Amino acid sequence: MPFDDKIELIAKLKPENPANIALQSFDPVYFETLDAGSQNRLMACLNSGIENPTSEMGCYACQPSDYDDFRPFFAKALAAYHKVSEDAQHKNNWSLERVEDLPEGGVLDLAAIGLPALSMRVRVGRNLAEFPLPGSMTRNDRVLLETRMMGAFGKLIADPDYGGAYHSLTPGSPNEIDAAAYQKLVDDHIMFKDMSNDTYLTAAGIASDWPYGRGCYVSADRGFIIWVGEEDHLRIMCMERGTILNRVFDRLKVALDVVAGIEGLEFAMSGDYGVVTSCPTNLGTGMRASVHIQLPNLTSDGTDKRAKQIAKPLGLSVRGAGGEHTPIGADGTVDISPSARFCITEAEIIAALYKGISLLKKEEDSIA
Ligand code: ADP
Ligand code: DAR
What we know:
CATH architecture of the domain at 3-82: Orthogonal Bundle
CATH superfamily of the domain at 3-82: ATP:guanido phosphotransferase, N-terminal domain
Bound molecules: adenosine-5'-diphosphate, D-arginine
Number of strands: 10
Distance between the termini: 55 Å
Helix content: 25-40%
Strand content: 5-15%
Low-confidence stretches: none
Structural class: alpha+beta
Strand order of the largest sheet: 2-3-4-5-1-8-10-9
Mean pLDDT: 96
């Protein structure tokens, strides 16, 4: 569709979809100032939100420099989603030292707020600076990236703290796993779901060439995982059942430094926006810190509606037991995580999870 038609379509969709931040942030006057190549790039970023008008964010970056190259658009979209100023600058910091109102010694122990051992997980998105972002990769790019990472995993396999194996979905890969093994990893919350079923990622080009270039590295203790080729080039995460949130947070930081130190791997970064991610909702830290917790009272109607109403003002997002766009667990299990990712430090995110869970538990108990 030539851009005049797209601009017209955006103008039509904009008043009908006030919650679609990309549509609301698009300025045709700014768009007209761009040369043809740049117009092509920016329109590619909006395609998901045009094809899915009920999107909330409605756009994904397709090149590592998009946020900086199309600042007039992204500054508006970021300000609207993250509730920050248009000239906001992100700072990364994993140290809990300067975070206020923490428990003694900065130990974020769920048991101290009356909770049992829960499944805890912290993940960060990272993209290699030398490749296009997933929305603009060719199949060859995707397989090349996976091959690069399979070489890098050799260093992790040799490390007793992270040793494990890489499982590939790429047909013909020496590490290829079959459908049953893949589904078992998904059911165990280790591997990501089939991206070709995600309408947003499909329209963004991020799910293209599925399943080529996709897979996951899993440590022997299944507590350290790296996804390859999902919404970002890499999703690096630590996960374990327990009560001390610091354990997964600290282990992830050490693991991330090991991966970042692997020869030839350079992560895409922006001077103003921190870690570059496909989705603007993840920009800055790329971090989502979550626990799976049973909320039988807040989910007594079998849905996450009430839980979302209570969690939102606490700065918390509610997802289903299977992650984004999935239903709650039969036992009322939901996935709780701080909504903020940008203009907040990594340390503040894990602290926000601890404080948010404490407040959410009080609400759950008050209904009982
Ligand atoms: P992401 O967190 O990477 O944005 P999703 O929300 O889709 O992606 O979650 C991906 C997978 O991770 C899903 O299987 C989800 O159930 C699992 N998951 C997320 N948080 C936890 C957790 N705290 N404990 C166990 N599994 C989790
Ligand atoms: N449905 C898309 C998703 C945005 C946030 N989730 C991500 N990035 N997985 C939207 O624009 O609403």
